[in-house]
Amino acid sequence: MPWFTRGRRRVTSRWPAHPDSYRDTFPGAVTPIDRPGEAVPAEIPAVCPTGAISRDGDRLHVDQGRCILCHRCVRQYPERFRFTIPAPAAHRDLLVVPALPETDDALAAVRAELARRTRLLRRSIHVRHVDAGSDGADEWEVLALLNPVYDIHRLGIFFTASPRHADVLLVTGVGSRGMAAPLARTLQAAPRPLVVIAAGTDAISGGLVHPTYATSGGIGDLIAATPDSAGATGAADGDPVRVDIWVPGSPPTPFALLHALLLAMGRLQ
Amino acid sequence: MTLTPLTADIAVWRTNILDRLASNRFASLFATAPPESDLRLTALLASAGSIDAIDVAVPRGSTSYPALSAVVPAASWYERKIHDLFGLEPLGHPRLDPLILPLREAQPRPLPGQRSAIPPLTPDEAAIPSRVLGHGVFTIPHGPVRSGVYESVEYLVETPGEDIPYVGIRVFAKHRGIERRFEDLDVSDGVLLAERVEGIASVAHALAFCHAVEDLAGVIPSPRDRSVRVIFAELERIANHLDVALKLADAAGLAVAVSRFGYHKERILRLIGAACGSRFGRGVVVPGGIGCEPAISPNALLTRLDDILREVFADADLLMQTPSFLDRLRGTGPLDPALARRHGALGPIGRASGFDDDDRWHRPYDEYSDLPQFPAVSSGSGDALARLEIRWSEIRSSAELIRQAVAHIAALSAPTAEPADVPAAIDRISGRGIGWAEAPQGEVVYVVECDDGRISRCAPRSASFHNLVLFHDVFAGDILTDFPFIEASFGLSIAGVAL
User: Pfam families from the xrefs (chain A) (predicted)?
Assistant: First the structure.
């Protein structure tokens, strides 16, 4: 039987136009359960191997940019933590849930600046992926975006072979120091406007792998640590290159990556 | 190059290894730099039923030792790695270029085992000598950032235009210093890091790490836990093999096949995710047992798996009858059976060339000793097609193994309580343990040394590291457009090579 008879059943998600039950139920992020007036036992933050949990009076905060989803907190303190849908953010501080009060002001400015750059990218984008020291799982999840379930072509999103055609740089990995120079060259080759996405907990904070002698604390650190970062990564229009969108998850789920790409297009808030 | 006289110890060590290689397989070689004492070289040899370590001390202050790879070619990359990490020179090594961490002579080395802080080190490309082979030959740098979504690796393809006389492999861009990161973690955090050594084989790495720890502590997980481990390990194998089929179909430009295998792989990842909350089976294997009960019943899992595999095999059969696809694989990237045997090629790559040393049958762990064996059936032609055929037969045997494991679980009584924490026996262990597991890519070995429950040295060795060096030897007669087929048919992960 030839290939053209295969796969005629619709398997493609309708998200974001319609809800997707897999996206809504997959445990892709951890959020504290607020229990006002109840004291938080002091030993709770120590359950986290990457220090993502902090205590502030009777409130718990989880930094989803540090969480590696080992599920320990949810298993040991099911009344204190629950799973939620991972939400990529346009500001690093937004990954701390519940949000810290000082986040709001900085956020408005960042949103406006990102919107200015993404105005041209609304209809269709080309994405260049760069691995800067991933464990390999992140690449599987990025590749999954091309399978018929996510099928990002339906949304005008394409991967490109050359950084010269890229509107978005999707960077995975802990920020291995050996990738500093190749990443800087890629950034330099890319046109502007450019949106940089740090995909996954490793890329955001270094996760469990950082610190070692060979890693940076994520992609933001790696870009900043490049010796001639001003020259090599500075944009033609004078904007310094920095991470614009942060995608939690270890590795990030395909839906979280898709969400981040739609943020980069200004199609989602 | 003149060899320095062997010190008595190293001479005995070498003779010992060479003697045992008559019946054993060379599995690994690594060094350890314990604080305040001599550097230690450890060779691992795999025999029927076990993997054993043979140690030798390199006296303090020595900067070199006679290379083992002069007599055991399979040790070549291991000694390049030792040179990178310890600055110790194996004299008589055939090609001692930097591999995972190119540094200039004067720079400090990471010295795994030291348990002390070291300054950041940046791989220095200029430390790698460059050479080209002959008249009209030029190099095509392929990576680390290249077309498609790939892990960072640079292949320096030396070519006069079409043929590929030599491929340089540079993996250092991804080096993460993982071995040092293990130090001072406790074993329950150590297994989380092991899952991130090679993310697409998380379960196998967690298994090998836990087997090492359990070996050291003398702990045997419950029968039920041992069966659950088998289920997740085999699901991981199916996902990886589907990934290879997907990438081969992609290389051949078969759009429908790419979509179909992408869809099948997605469904397997979702099945794993539904059972444990992670699409990569993370958090399932912990020292002493399993970290969570499967969230769906084993029988429901089996039903879903059967549904998926029915479609997988229908598409696989069609793929294996598609002439434009088979033409690209047949005779492509052949690995010589004699070389496969001599090198001890692991996993599907070895099996496709007639060399089969599967940890599941030859050194059984967990429930595998109670399960039927499925020795690989291979034409032994060793080309990309043979490697794909091996993977199809492994998917079939994985399904059967899962079926049997589910039956075993059904025969056991249901668990009375949620899985407990790490058993007390493991909490405060000291000493050294060796553990192994058969990943989709082949054997993974971990040597874990602990001091009062804290890891003092952890040396993981993935099948990807052992097999990637064979890439040099499979381009005979192949041309540039065969490259993606050969790369995909190896099915390796660079994360597990560069560590």
Answer: Oxidored_q6
